[in-house]
């Protein structure tokens, strides 16, 4: 291998250098200028995102430990865009933190390193890289969850996340070791060749699956989700629900579709069961939440359940629909979290009941929220509908009509609680309604971007076709 | 290769170790000891990897390398966890796991 | 002959209706009255012209009056079945044209006086025109569906006119009753039509009535519960006719319908609309006669006979003069039905049919006269009840005379019109069905009795105290009375049998002297009895009423028919079925839907405990989950 | 831009304009103009359709086909036949009338009209779609605005009703979705590609097993929207809480989607399934017919009465559709149209009465004929129309249905038919009950004597709806023939 092959890691290297740059700059910047760090970080990451959009050749290095394909690259860009919008939405909040509470750049550093971990995770070619990426993507988030050192809840969230994450990765590791026995190697390609559906491999598969299910927060591995979301800062909650979940879904798909394909007939049923439990439990819990962060936590759990409907397809169609849905889901959830962020930044209110009569005072925000919720609920013509419909098509394609039916029943249930928020914003009027306010520029851009993509992505079919093309070479 | 000990004994041992860790995780009341239990779980896998490598697939060193990485990661994990625990202790003056139940339902 | 001008006859009243109805605020009452009368005058002239044209210009085509038909498709059901709209000109429809236009014209003129000063004067004339239009349409119908359509329209215009005093609760109730009862009968009619349409493949009278046609010849092809389906169809259609013509047991709406203004009662509930049922049966007479050896026809005969008897008995006991007249109408209609029922088809056989139509014709004249007379009386004394009347012959001379003429006519005293037609009916009955004949004779007696009971009650007897002295009605009201009075005498001499017969051939009708004599004597007996009872103030009537006791009471309460109906509708349907349905819907159907929702929320409330906030519970769930899944897939789910 | 796509584009443009303007006055003018244009287009479409039919005998005319999602073979595919043309005309009329009726919308007028137009987009799109996917999309677009419309501008327990309505309809669409996917994945039995295109699917014969499995799903999915017993309970509550214009659009147009969908998708694509299941659903429909009528008898709230009568009338539509012959289907379509017009007018009048007297409880009302003659008289007329009086649209439709239903010889159908026919009496009862109590009789309440007379925009709304009711009733030939010849290809699948 020559040095050029390192260019395959272009995005990783670029991100790494951004992290280092930020650390260095922080040392030299004077105290009263620190506020500009935010602009600097946003700017740098914006460039990074832009650069990431350019295509590059596929290939693998380190003897297949690290590989990249069009799909993986595209997915990294999705993550980039997500994180970029996240930054925009949380910029104001960070500004405040840095200026008033003398915090450093650690937020960015941790965030980016976690993202870096995901890069490695999604382009992992063997279990070692996968494991390292997994950990690297998880641990910084735990630190981020505990970012608000002054808040007890924040620390609790940190504890819960780090400990349960450690447990999960421990279990996953054990599973990997079992797969190592069964497959005779930690390289995906080798395992793919050798593995057969023996009890041992089934055991390993299930255990590894649970390790990932923890990150995707499938029931019954989801319990940490709500608590952590509630305790952690909104940006972090949003990051967990969108970026890390997305990445985990992606790698899970790679594992199931390629490495564990010989066990297809087993994990089909596994996915079937988990899809049902996840959708039902997630929805049932979301029903009675009043705190919006918890509410969105459970809604995102339910969404994960829907994603499994795409995975169960096990073909190119499944891959495409899942990626497409994740993409849309990223934007929808970011929009929802963005509104919560904006409002809690202004008023510190995070409860649904606080939103009564919001439309009368802040029509724009309410509209964004409504679109986001409709997209999550899957109401046409916003993008979410198309994502869901295609997921269901994927599942029905394999003949899982009953599963699809139950899923759609869940859509109805979920519609109920999404409408509860709409009800609060539009139907209700209250003299204690949140007064009118104007968000800062970054927030506005962040929200506008999400809304635009929610409106356009669904109707703009070439995007889906593109994804479908890319997902061919995952097989 | 350790004479007279087949892989099965060792795998049994590691499995026991794993479940002891799990047990500890579930029963200990002190966050620190929970952290220790997590270490147990990790180490179970570490041993696993080494053993499997040695007994079953000795021609490549995948398992051994893996175990080294695991140790490193575990260390990082612990450090981070400790840091957060200390931060929690600063606020509520306790490291009991029961103290982390304000958020529920 | 070109008959398209006949379309004008119905459409002129329609135009008048639209004209008056759409801007009844702007047109002055006096004007609207003239518009209505004039419009109808034109229609009347045209009708007479038509009659002349039909009977004399082409006259008989090789000995038979052939129907002349003009038909246009209105809506297609299937490739074969369709609703047509058009004209069906034959003897009876022409006769009906004459009747309807004449009476309607009289009533229009009369109403200009009677309704003077009423708030909704214009509206009243609009409704009258609407009714007249519908009635014309009905008699000119070419097929079952067209007749059904106009059938419904006359029903609704009768509804509107009965409920004309819409602030009066009793009027509203009567209107609703009339509509719903007839509607119920029409349900039968409609199903009958559907049966006919399906099994004969046509709605057209021409095809249906053709004695050599398939629909009559193949009546036996399909049968249901022992009867030919065609018979069922006919019976159901007759149910519709019975509803309109107030036969038992659908008669209950007619007496209440008297809540409407008296001219309306005269026009709709005496002369024209109520005979629609008779007309319908006559229309389908060949079918009734030929299908299943006239089984359906015999039913018609009995229903008619019983109704006429029943009504006559009740009429004796009623004290509201309009109700008496109403029951007498019902009884006379029963007569007509009976006559149809006992009639044959060809040649002299068809005397019953002829007689029925004849009686329809004459009855229209004198019954309208009676009602208008009664109206003029009511106009004078502002009351419907006999007890408030008496000795009015001096105050209302014209009314008195005309009323007397009408009474004699209906009592069947020669040479008045009623005598001729009633005599023919009795002849027909005598030849075919003795039982019905005796009923008929008895009813004739009763008729004479109750009619003269009210006549004496009104115009003789001792004077009552009137708050302001009653005086003769204005010319606009008396003129129609006189005209009708004349008509009630002369129409009897029309040689009906020449024109109106089932087969259209016509025959020479002879008076059957013995039967006539019997009928007349019975009539006279009735009159004499009435004279004895009611000429002078005496308590004979009451004593005899007492002697009859229970029977009198029952008759007075119309044999409790209303109560029975009321029980069925109010108690059973309204409070029973409807209420329980409403409850069921609220509790069960809606309840389940709500329960589904509630249960979901309830469950989510129940299971919230598992999200306990305890890190270690989560860990337990995690590991437990792993173990369970492993179990499932290693031990239970291993394909 | 082809003649059909305009039906979606024009409302969108109207909405965009509405977004940028302020205040009630402009809002109502804009939306009035917008829906006026729609009406014009609809009328133009009718004539264009007749001209097109001369030269073009395809099942669907004015078809336009554009690929949307290639991989799923989803197309944006529109086209119309006589049936959709008629329904489009109906929709445009009702929408315009609705705009006029809500002329004095106080609260958030702009948003109100926008939601109204979104709803109409959904309906238009649904009627012109030839592609199951787009059809489904428009179906949901049409349903969702109801939540806001009822929830924000409604009365009484609006939040409850709105939620109930939305959830039940969405639940229905859930069932429907499975059915559609089922059809989709069975659409290539003759080796072609999977497709959502209705016309293409109609060519292949879906295996009997699949038809038997998916027909009930599709049928129920659509039929709930037209208040199939026992899934009708969303409609009374929804109507009772909805603002006038919404009730009009809802009962007048939205509920027609159900019957139309049943006809276009369930009957057309799954004929064998239809034959298998028809008897079962006939029972439900017949129950609905009678049940709705009896339910209406005891109600006190005007809107409830009309909601239940809708259950009865639309039950008749489903009943006719299940009779599976041309006459009955013609009746079903006609019934949809006439019911649409009549109920819309009913709700408009109820809205006027409610706006004046402040109550919908008939026991509190009385003698309205004296104080608001025009409105009351119209109410009587519509009442008569809805009890199937000749000369109005209802009669034409019902007679077609009954004659069609009578084409079946066997006892089961006979009994079902007779039961359904007998509804004409019950209908008369509850209509006359309302007329008698509310309109006739002495004026109940002194303050009614000073009620405001009918205003010009209300009059316009009334006339808009009354003209077609009478037109259909007096001269049904052109309409029923237009529908009949469009039915020809659909009946083929059953024989």
Describe the structure.
The complex is a heterotetramer of chains A (about 475), B (about 100), C (about 650) and D (about 500). Chain A has helices spanning about 10-30, 35-55, 70-100, 105-120, 125-145, 150-185, 190-195, 200-215, 225-230, 235-260, 265-285, 290-310, 315-345, 360, 365-375, 385-395, 400-425, 440-460, 460-470; strands at about 60, 65-70. By secondary structure, chain A is an all-alpha fold. Chain A has a two-stranded antiparallel ribbon. In chain A, a hairpin with a 4-residue loop joins β1 (about 60) and β2 (about 65-70). In chain A, α13 (about 315-345) runs antiparallel to α18. The relative contact order of chain A is 0.10. The mean pLDDT of chain A is about 90. In chain B, about 75% of the residues lie in helices and about 0% in strands. Chain B is built from 3 helices and no strands. Chain B has helices at about 5-25, 30-55, 60-90. The model of chain B has no long low-confidence stretch (mean pLDDT about 90). Chain D is mainly alpha-helical and about 500 residues long. Chain D has a two-stranded antiparallel sheet with strand order 1-2. The chains are: A mainly alpha (about 475), B mainly alpha (about 100), C mainly alpha (about 650), D mainly alpha (about 500). Chains in contact: A-B, A-C, A-D, B-C, C-D. The interface between B and C is medium-sized, with 13 and 11 residues.
Query: Which protein chains are joined by the largest interface, and how many residues does each one contribute?
Result: C-D, 48 and 53 residues
> What would you call the shape of chain C?
globular
Q: In angstroms, what is the radius of gyration of chain C?
A: 31 Å
Number of H- or I-type helical stretches of chain B: 3
Mean pLDDT of chain B: 91
Describe the biggest sheet of chain B? none
Tally of DSSP β-strands of chain C: 4
Helical amount of chain C: over 70%
The structure class of chain C reads mainly alpha
């Amino acid at each position: 291998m020559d040095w050029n092959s390192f260019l395959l890691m272009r995005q990783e290297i670029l991100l790494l250098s951004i992290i280092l740059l930020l650390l260095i700059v922080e040392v030299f910047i004077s105290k009263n200028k620190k506020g500009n760090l935010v602009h600097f970080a946003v700017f740098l990451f914006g460039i990074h995102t832009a650069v990431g959009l350019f295509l590059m050749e596929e290939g693998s290095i380190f003897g297949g430990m690290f590989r990249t394909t069009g799909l993986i690259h595209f997915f990294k860009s999705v993550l980039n865009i997500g994180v970029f919008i996240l930054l925009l939405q949380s910029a104001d909040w960070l500004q405040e933190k840095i200026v008033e509470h003398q915090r450093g750049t650690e937020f960015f550093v941790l965030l980016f390193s976690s993202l870096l971990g995901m890069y490695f995770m999604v382009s992992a070619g063997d279990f070692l890289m996968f494991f390292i990426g997994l950990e690297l993507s998880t641990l910084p988030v735990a630190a981020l969850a505990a970012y608000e050192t002054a808040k007890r809840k924040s620390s609790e969230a940190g504890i819960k996340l780090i400990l349960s994450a450690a447990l999960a990765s421990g279990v996953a590791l054990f599973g990997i070791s079992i797969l190592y026995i069964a497959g005779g190697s930690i390289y995906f390609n080798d395992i793919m060749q050798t593995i057969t559906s023996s009890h041992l491999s089934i055991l390993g598969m299930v255990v590894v699956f649970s390790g990932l299910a923890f990150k995707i927060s499938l029931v019954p591995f989801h319990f940490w989700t709500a608590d952590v979301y509630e305790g952690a800062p909104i940006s972090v909650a949003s990051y967990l629900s969108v970026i890390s979940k997305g990445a985990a879904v992606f790698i899970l798909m790679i594992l199931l579709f390629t490495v564990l394909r010989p066990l297809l007939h087993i994990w089909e049923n596994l996915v079937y069961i988990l899809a049902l439990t996840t959708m039902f439990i997630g929805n049932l819990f979301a029903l009675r939440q009043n705190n919006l962060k918890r509410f969105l936590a459970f809604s995102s759990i339910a969404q994960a359940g829907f994603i499994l409907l795409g995975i169960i397809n096990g073909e190119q169609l499944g891959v495409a629909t899942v990626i497409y849905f994740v993409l849309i889901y990223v934007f929808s959830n970011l929009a929802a979290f963005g509104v919560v962020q904006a409002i809690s930044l202004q008023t510190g209110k995070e409860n649904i009941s606080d939103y009564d009569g919001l439309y009368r005072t802040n029509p724009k925000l309410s509209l964004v929220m409504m679109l986001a919720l409709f997209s999550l609920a899957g109401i046409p013509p916003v993008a979410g509908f198309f994502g869901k419909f295609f997921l269901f098509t994927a599942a029905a394609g394999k003949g899982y009509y009953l599963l699809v039916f139950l899923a759609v029943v869940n859509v109805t249930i979920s519609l109920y609680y999404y409408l509860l928020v709409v009800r609060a914003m539009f139907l209700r009027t209250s003299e204690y309604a949140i007064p009118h306010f104007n968000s800062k520029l970054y927030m506005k851009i962040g929200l506008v971007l999400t809304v635009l993509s929610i409106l356009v992505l669904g109707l703009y079919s070439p995007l889906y076709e593109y994804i479908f093309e890319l997902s061919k070479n995952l097989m | 290769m350790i004479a007279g000990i087949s892989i099965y004994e060792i795998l049994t041992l590691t499995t026991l170790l794993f479940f002891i860790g799990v047990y500890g995780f579930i029963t200990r009341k002190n966050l620190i000891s929970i952290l220790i239990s997590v270490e147990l779980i990790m180490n179970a896998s570490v041993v696993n990897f080494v053993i499997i490598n040695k007994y079953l697939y000795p021609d490549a060193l995948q398992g051994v390398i893996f175990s080294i990485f695991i140790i490193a990661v575990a260390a990082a994990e612990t450090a981070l966890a400790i840091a957060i625990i200390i931060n929690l202790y600063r606020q509520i003056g306790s490291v009991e796991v029961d103290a982390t139940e304000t958020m529920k339902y | 002959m070109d008959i398209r001008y006949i379309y004008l006859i119905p459409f002129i009243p329609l135009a008048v209706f639209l004209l008056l109805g759409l801007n009844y605020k702007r047109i002055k009452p006096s004007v609207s009255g003239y518009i209505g009368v004039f419009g109808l005058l034109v229609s009347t002239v045209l009708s007479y012209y038509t009659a002349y044209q039909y009977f004399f210009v082409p006259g008989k085509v090789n000995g038979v009056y052939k129907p002349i038909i003009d038909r246009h498709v209105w809506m297609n059901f299937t490739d074969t079945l369709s609703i047509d709209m058009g004209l069906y000109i034959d003897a009876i429809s022409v006769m009906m044209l004459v009747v309807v236009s004449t009476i309607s014209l009289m009533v229009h003129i009369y109403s200009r006086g009677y309704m003077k000063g009423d708030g909704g004067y214009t509206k009243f004339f609009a409704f009258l025109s609407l009714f007249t239009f519908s009635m014309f349409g009905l008699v000119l119908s070419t097929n079952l569906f067209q007749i059904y359509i106009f059938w419904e329209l006359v029903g609704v215009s009768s509804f509107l006119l009965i409920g004309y005093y819409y602030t009066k609760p009793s009027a509203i109730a009567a209107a609703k009753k009339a509509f719903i009862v007839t509607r119920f009968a029409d349900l039968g009619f409609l199903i009958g039509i559907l049966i006919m349409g399906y099994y004969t493949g046509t709605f057209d009278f021409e095809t249906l009535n053709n004695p050599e046609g398939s629909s009559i010849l193949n009546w036996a092809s399909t049968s249901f519960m022992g009867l030919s389906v065609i018979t069922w169809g006919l019976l159901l259609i007759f149910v519709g006719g019975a509803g309109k013509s107030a036969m038992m047991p659908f008669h209950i709406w007619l007496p209440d319908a008297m809540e409407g203004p008296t001219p309306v009662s005269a026009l709709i509930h005496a002369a024209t609309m109520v005979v629609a049922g008779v007309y319908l049966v006559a229309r389908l007479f060949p079918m009734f006669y030929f299908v299943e050896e006239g089984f359906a026809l015999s039913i018609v005969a009995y229903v008619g006979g019983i109704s006429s008897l029943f009504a006559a008995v009740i009429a004796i006991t009623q004290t509201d003069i309009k109700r008496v007249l109403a029951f007498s109408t019902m009884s006379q209609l029963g007569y007509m039905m009976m006559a149809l029922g006992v009639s044959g088809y060809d040649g002299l056989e068809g005397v019953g049919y002829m007689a029925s139509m004849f009686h329809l014709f004459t009855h229209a004249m004198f019954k309208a006269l009676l009602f208008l007379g009664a109206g003029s009386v009511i106009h004078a004394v502002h009351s419907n009840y006999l007890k408030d009347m008496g000795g009015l012959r001096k105050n209302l001379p014209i009314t008195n005379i005309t009323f007397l003429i009408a009474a004699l006519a209906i009592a069947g005293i020669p040479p008045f019109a009623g005598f001729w037609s009633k005599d023919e009916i009795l002849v027909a009955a005598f030849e075919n069905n003795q039982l019905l004949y005796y009923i008929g004779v008895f009813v004739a007696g009763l008729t004479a009795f109750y009619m003269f009971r009210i006549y004496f009650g009104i115009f003789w007897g001792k004077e009552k105290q009137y708050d302001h002295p009653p005086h003769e009605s204005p010319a606009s009201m008396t003129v129609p009375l006189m005209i009708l009075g004349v008509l009630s005498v002369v129409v009897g001499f029309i040689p009906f049998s020449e024109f109106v017969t089932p087969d259209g051939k016509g025959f020479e009708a002879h008076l059957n002297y013995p039967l006539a004599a019997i009928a007349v004597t019975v009539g006279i007996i009735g009159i004499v009895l009435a004279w004895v009872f009611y000429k002078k103030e005496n308590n004979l009537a009451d004593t005899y009423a007492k002697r009859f006791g229970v029977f009198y009471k029952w008759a007075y309460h119309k044999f409790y028919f209303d109560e029975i109906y009321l029980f069925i509708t109010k108690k059973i349907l309204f409070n029973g079925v409807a209420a329980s349905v409403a409850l069921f819907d609220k509790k069960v159907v809606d309840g389940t839907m709500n329960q589904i929702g509630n249960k979901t929320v309830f469950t989510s409330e129940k299971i919230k405990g598992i999200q306990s906030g305890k890190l270690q519970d989560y860990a337990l769930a995690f590991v437990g989950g792993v173990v369970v899944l492993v179990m499932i897939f290693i031990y239970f789910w291993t394909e | 831009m082809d003649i059909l796509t305009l039906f979606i584009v024009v409302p969108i443009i109207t909405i965009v304009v509405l977004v940028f303007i302020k205040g009630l006055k402009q809002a109502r003018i804009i939306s009035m103009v917008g829906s006026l244009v729609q009406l014009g287009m609809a009328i133009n479409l009718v004539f264009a359709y007749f001209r097109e039919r001369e030269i073009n005998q395809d099942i669907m005319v004015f078809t336009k086909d554009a690929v949307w999602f290639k991989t799923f073979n989803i197309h944006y595919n529109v086209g119309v036949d006589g049936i959709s043309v008629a329904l489009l005309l109906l929709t445009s009329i009702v929408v315009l009338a609705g705009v006029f009726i809500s002329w004095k919308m106080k609260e958030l007028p702009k948003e109100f009209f926008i939601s109204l137009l979104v709803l109409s987009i959904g309906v238009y799109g649904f009627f012109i779609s030839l592609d199951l996917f787009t059809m489904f999309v428009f179906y949901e677009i049409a349903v969702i605005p109801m939540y806001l419309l009822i929830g924000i501008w409604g009365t009484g327990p609006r939040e409850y009703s709105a939620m109930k309505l939305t959830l039940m309809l969405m639940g229905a669409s859930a069932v429907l979705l499975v059915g559609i996917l089922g059809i989709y994945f069975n659409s290539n039995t003759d080796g072609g590609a999977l497709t959502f295109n209705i016309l293409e699917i109609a060519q292949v014969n879906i295996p009997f097993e699949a038809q038997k499995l998916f027909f009930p799903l599709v049928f129920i999915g659509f039929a709930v929207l037209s208040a199939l017993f026992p899934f009708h309970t969303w409609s009374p509550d929804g109507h009772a809480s909805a603002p006038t214009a919404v009730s009009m659009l809802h009962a007048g147009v939205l509920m027609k989607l159900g019957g139309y969908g049943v006809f276009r998708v369930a009957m057309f694509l799954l004929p064998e399934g239809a034959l298998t299941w028809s008897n079962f659903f006939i029972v439900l429909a017949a129950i609905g017919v009678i049940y709705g009528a009896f339910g209406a008898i005891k109600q006190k709230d005007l809107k409830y009465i009309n909601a239940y009568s809708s259950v009865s009338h639309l039950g008749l539509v489903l009943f006719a559709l299940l009779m599976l012959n041309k006459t009955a289907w013609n009746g079903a379509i006609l019934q949809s149209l006439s019911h649409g017009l009549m109920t819309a007018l009913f709700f408009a009048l109820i809205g006027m009465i409610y706006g004046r007297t402040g109550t919908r409880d008939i026991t509190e009302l009385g003698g309205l004929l004296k104080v608001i003659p025009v409105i009351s008289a119209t109410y009587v007329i519509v009442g008569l129309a809805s009890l199937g009086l000749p000369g109005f649209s209802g009669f034409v439709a019902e007679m077609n249905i009954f004659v069609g239903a009578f084409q079946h010889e066997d006892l089961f159908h006979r009994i079902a038919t007779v039961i359904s026919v007998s509804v004409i009496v019950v209908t008369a009862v509850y209509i006359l009950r309302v007329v008698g109590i509310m309109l006739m009789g002495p004026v109940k309440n002194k303050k009614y004597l000073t009620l405001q007379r009918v205003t010009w925009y209300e009059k316009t709304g009334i006339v808009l709806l009354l003209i077609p009711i009478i037109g259909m009733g007096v001269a049904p030939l052109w309409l029923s023939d237009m529908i009949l010849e469009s039915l020809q290809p659909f009946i083929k699948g059953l024989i």
